[in-house]
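WARN no homologs supplied; continuing
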Amino acid sequence: MTDSTDTGTAHLPGTGRVAGKVALVTGAARGQGKSHAIRLAEEGADIILFDLCRDIETNGYPLATPRDLEEAALEVEKTGRRAIAAEVDVRDRGALDTAIAAAVSEFGRLDVVVANAGICPLGDGPVEAFADAFDVDLVGATNTIHASLPHLTAGASIIATGSVAALLAAGSQGGPSGAGGAGYVLAKEMLTTYIHRIARVLAPKSIRANIIHPTNVNTPMLQSGPMYRQFRPDLADPGPDDVTAAFASLQSMPDVPWIEPADVSDTVVYLASSESRYITGLDLTIDAGATLGRGGR
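OK structure emitted
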């Protein structure tokens, strides 16, 4: 799941693992995206930060604000790296083409694409929630990648944010509720197949594409009323204290209700760096054992 309240501290000081690279991160104003942007900057990359910075009507929790995006860019700059921030809707391919081209013109290159922007509208919302979730989570990710392709060269890395929830739902173990939840699951399932296919297409050009599937991540998406009700449908108005045990029940490792954004960001840095130069088409779960027993695991 995507988005964050805390970037976490579970990483070592930067050692220049992506020094000299330029990385694009969508959904960068907060959550996992903000964490990824800062972590990549700590490791030497200049960062392009895109975010919608306004709410989507069918989504039952507030999204990031322009102030959030501004603060994320400032955090990147505090590392000593450069930042370009723009309010961009990943559903708008033309806007992405223009914004990416402008940023690449200023920075001179693009090496890493983190297609992270996402929403998860849950509960008894309108059928339009299906379309909104699908359009942001799948169309937005593919738009981001396709708009980036003209600027990528050998050694570039594409990293998409998937979802353990979608993997589990695909295995008939339940999934997010309502029309929006169905759109979310379908988008993440199709994004997984898409990454596998585009990895094959890009491999002869030495451009890599991988997808990360996190379990619950400690973000505003998780820490929200709709998500609390998803995990505790037996309560009319569950709060944070009501859901911790339910969150933890998803993971096989004990006492892990969620992971922190930094747990995912460290993997993003690895996939962005030359340490993973021969890794492509990979599904990487960061899930404390949530998917053990699925698909022969």
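Residues 1-10 have pLDDT under 50 and may be disordered.
OK
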